[in-house]
Amino acid sequence: MKSVIMERLRAGRFVLIAEIGVNYYDIAKQRGITNMDAAKLMVKSAADAGIHAVKFQTYKAGTLAAKDSPYYWDITEEPTRSQYELFTKFDSFGYDEYRQLKEYSDEVGVEFLSTAFDFESADYLDELMNVYKISSSDLSNIPFIEYQAAKGKPILLSVGASNEDEIERAVTAIRNKTDAPITLLHCVLEYPTPLEDANLLKIASLKTRFPDVYIGYSDHTKPTDDCDVIKTAYNLGAVLVEKHFTLDKTLKGNDHYHAMDPGDARAILAAIERMDMIRGKGDLVSLDTESAARANARRSIVAYGSIPKGTVITKDMLTFKRPGTGISPDRIDTIVGKTAAVDIADDTILQENMLGS
Description:
Blueprint lengths: L3 H7 L4 E7 L2 H8 L3 H14 L4 E6 L2 H4 L18 H6 L6 H14 L2 E6 L2 H7 L6 E3 L7 H8 L5 E4 L5 H12 L6 E6 L13 H9 L4 E6 L8 H8 L4 E5 L17 H18 L11 H7 L2 E4 L14 E4 L10 H4 L22
Parallel strand pairs: 1-2, 1-8, 2-3, 4-5, 5-6, 6-7, 7-8
Antiparallel strand pairs: 9-10
Helix pairs in contact: 2-3, 3-6, 8-9, 11-12
C-alpha cells in the first residue's frame, strides 16, 4: 500500500496528521448524526484542509484501563475522573467501522491510521494501515511494541513522559524486529500543554541522539494564531507533526480544547510553506538572484596611479575597488611581476588583455 506519510518523509517534506482520536463521538452528539457520519465528516474536513493523514484510536475500555484508574487530564474541560469510565464512552468501533473509515479516507485522498491499544486491534488494523502509531502510554510496554514492530511496517512512536534510557529500550525493541523506518515524536503529556512546558528543544536532542530515525512532534498545546509552536518544532527538526483535530474547539470533553480545527490546519500548512520558502535549500552556492550584487559589490584589482606600457607591475601600483568585473583581488600574487601590455591609466580596472607575461 502507498503511504503518503512515508513518501513525504523520505522526500524531506512536512507531514501533518490530524489526530481525530475519538472526538467524532462528541461531534455526532452535537450535530445529531451517527458516530460514523461524524467520523467521516471529520475525515473529509481534514482532507479538504490539506492534511496528509488522519488518525483514530482503537481500544476497548476493558483491555485498556483498570476500573479504578485515575484521571490525568484537565477536569475543568473533561470532568470524568476515571480512565475506564472515560474510555467506555468511546470504544464502540471495531474492525468493520475502521475498514469503512479506511475506505472513505482513500476515497477523499487522505491516509488512514489508528493507534492500537491492544493485540486484537493491532492485528485487524494491519490490513488497513501503512504505518503503525504507538502511543507514549505504551513506551514501556515492550512486549506490545515488539508485537507491532514484528508486522514489519514503519512505526511512529511518541515519547512523551519518557527518559533517554526508556526511549533507547523502545527503539532497540523495534530494531530487534524490523529495519522499517522509525519516527520518534516528542510529546508532553499535559492536556493541554502550557507553552512554558512545550520543551521543544527536546526535538533537537532527539535528532542528535537518534540520527538514524525521523523526528516528529505530537502537539498538545492550544493552537496559536501565528503557529509559533509548530514553526519552532519544524525548525528544530520535527518533519512530522501530529495534532488533535476537532470541528469545534469550544466543545467540552476529551480532546477538543487543545485541538486544531480545519482553519488552524490550513494556517499551519501555510506557515510551514512559508518557512520552507524562507529556509531555502541550504546549498553552499551563490544564488542566481545575487549575480548583479556579486558582480558589482565585490572588488577588482585597480591601477593605483598610471602604469606605462612595459612596466613590471609591483604591489604598490595596485589597489582594490568595486565593481568586481575585473581581476579578483585573490589573484594579486599572480598579477605582481607581470608586464603592462598597454598604457594603463590611473583608476583603471585591470583586465587580462592589459597584461603580458
